[in-house]
Amino acid sequence: MSEVESFFKSAFSVDNVIFGFDGRSLKVLLIQRGAAPFRGKWALPGDLVYPNEDLDAAAERVLQQLTGLSNVYLEQVKAFGAVDRHPIGRVITIAYYSLIKISNYAVTPASFAQSAQWHEANNVITDLAFDHNDILDTCLQQLKTKARREPIGFELLPPKFTLTELQQLYEAILDQPKGLDKRNFRKKILAMNILVECSEQQAGVAHRPAKLYQFDKEKYEALAAKGLSFDL
Amino acid sequence: MSEVESFFKSAFSVDNVIFGFDGRSLKVLLIQRGAAPFRGKWALPGDLVYPNEDLDAAAERVLQQLTGLSNVYLEQVKAFGAVDRHPIGRVITIAYYSLIKISNYAVTPASFAQSAQWHEANNVITDLAFDHNDILDTCLQQLKTKARREPIGFELLPPKFTLTELQQLYEAILDQPKGLDKRNFRKKILAMNILVECSEQQAGVAHRPAKLYQFDKEKYEALAAKGLSFDL
DNA sequence: ATTATTTCGTGTAGAAATGACAATAAGTAT
DNA sequence: ATACTTATTGTCATTTCTACACGAAATAAT
Lengths: 232, 232
Fold this sequence. Notes:
2 copies of one chain form a homodimer. By secondary structure, chain A is of the alpha+beta class. Chain A has helices at residues 3-6, 55-67, 132-147, 163-173, 182-192, 217-225, and strands at 11-21, 26-32, 42-43, 46-48, 73-80, 91-99, 116-120, 195-201, 211-215.
């Protein structure tokens, strides 16, 4: 075997930290492994990257196969490449996270035999397979950092939401000890001018219904180009 | 060849965007490739990762072989893995950037035959080898973002520096159109309480010498733990 | 239909941070 | 001594931030 060939004995995979929000807390979708290694352990959904598949495409595929969803927010975080991170050989993995609207996720489609389950993002069991605890922590940290500087939170909410729901989301993501002040939060987010008020109101609640809002992405991008910086 | 084996026909490399600051502008260290592919083209320093080498270690090695430096600021940015990014096979690369004190870099050590040269970081030729323009842009963007929120700029300065030097550095990194206000910059950075004044002064200048300062990392970390957030 | 219950929606005032601005001080070179 | 160059320092007006409480609008229960 030539020297160059000896470098071509490794593989790479993608692992995807899929976040959702159920109205109360931030969740992560984990699977229980059906095959060795780490059979039976909880793990991040992931797969080897096909030889002629781009990295991002592989991450999308993993997400699509597990949730049936496509066209969702997906972002690469970093590569994890410790020599011994995988028991069967040299496999580095590229970690991604996605943000999905939890209500769109139906339950595991039949095509995927493995059991998948939502777990509390801030309180995940510490013995995930491989180095997945590491990966999860890194992605969670990155989400927390990024969510306060870019308007990605909306990816976790239904298209129309109330300001209270939005606030609860941010309280769940940034773990502010005391929560956020209601009036100040509303003032701030409305002042950015990136939300549009819907004509409908919240329905089916046993109290005064709230106004519904939508995130206006075009408006945000126009303002961002002019120097607006989202910051919570 | 088994199905699993077909996944083990790829390699990975690291590429390192090495930044320096010469007192006026931000620089990147590029090499001129001595071998195919892209022989003669300018490129980021990088190498294949050895089979039993951690990713970070490979990035350090590349840096060390080129500059003779070790123990410098090094950070992984992301993986670049388009299927066709490398002409000789499937090779994904993990991009890093490092910040070095340019005065410590002697010139290419003999061990490295390739010619290495500093280029203006904000104005690099657009036909680097591989997808290196992409990688460079991403790393530069990341540096700009990160430099305003974490005290990493000091890695580019000598241990003792004047406030004017520090300001010039930040003006070079964040390309503020009008520069920063001198009085306000000093007020802000000194108020953070992470600099210590040296007993010496600047020497060898034909005008009033400035006080020299050092970055106090322990102090910063103590304050950061209590909630200080570096922000310029 | 009155009442209880729950959440919605809103403004103000004091404190803190920011941004704009220029004159004197301390050295070297001639 | 004088010219030259860069270093150092404070104030004021404006903006932003933070803390804080009550009437309004709907449903549920009687």
